[in-house]
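Sequence in, structure out. Go.
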Amino acid sequence: MTRFLTKDFLSGLMFIAFGLVALYFGRHLALGTAVRMGPGWVPHMLAYILLGLGFLICLVAFFTVGELVERPKLKPIALVTLGIVLFALMLERTGMVPALAVLVLVASLGGDEFKVIEVIGNIVVLSVLCIIVFKVGLGMNISVIEGVW
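Output:
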């Protein structure tokens, strides 16, 4: 029973699941031929590759001793998810920098080590990088701080 609870075996099952989901959602796309590929050719081939890799990983994991999966830690999962939801809700109302600050702050609370100076450094660096990439580089119409810039 413990062979089925290893990280490798479960990751193989995840690959298989993604492959099956891709095949399900791409079932209405025309495949075409190898010479005249249709819109479903690449998704189907990638799904088959995922399935093959998944089965191969499961097979190898079944015959080797692997690391057991530990119980999921709910605090980090919940706080990172909450941070993303708060970012999405705040982005249009407050601007990118305040929403990003709340995201980093809330997600940082999910970790075991919380140091205020590191969190502030992350907020500053990520804010500057996001302004450079999204506002200046890509020219997106995102307010940095709502009502200011």
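Check: Helices lie at 7-25, 41-63, 74-94, 96-108, 116-137. DSSP finds five helices and no strands in the chain.
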